[in-house]
Request: fold
Amino acid sequence: MSALTELYEEIKNCRQCDIARCRTNAVPGEGAEDADIMFIGEAPGWHEDQQGRPFVGPAGKFLDELLNIIGLKREHVYITNVIKTRPPENRDPLPQEIVNCRPWLDRQIEIIRPKMIVTLGRYSMALFFPGKSIGKIHGTAEKRDDILYYAMYHPAAALHQQSLREIIKADMLKIPQLLSQAKGMPEAKPAPETKQLNLFEG
Ligand code: URA
Reply:
């Protein structure tokens, strides 16, 4: 069993949060174990819960389209979420759920060792760019510990707000060049520790 498959088994058996009782499937993540780029969304929705796969609903269709414009398919990248279980009625993830799920995400990053982590939406951004606002930092990257962190709006935002569609596409189009320049980029200062309080800012 690969390290990722083993991790998926652990995630599927995790009952740390109450929401585990309501799920159809846990949604650990999927994609290439040696992916250069890891996309991190917020939480599974109804479609994801049904299938046990990340980004397979309407937001996922747009993510596929975004990948396509830079010549990638989902199997070339790794896709996961901040939390691995659908919150009931698609409510926002609770701070404690984010804390409980964090070790799974950290282990995914350790196993995959991506060159670039793309945060999709503010929950994911808050983990890697604490205290920052998505409106200010979307489309910008920071290198820390040899990983390029890049913030984007959540694809679902474009489904509610058409004007974001082109902004999200433009941010996606920057990824190939950033990735190719990543090696020569200077390291940024370490991000401050994520605090509970600033998870919901911006
Ligand atoms: N939105 C997310 O943040 N993640 C998914 O997997 C699907 C929708």
Residues 41-45, 48, 54-55, 57, 59-60, 81, 156 surround uracil (CB under 6 Å).
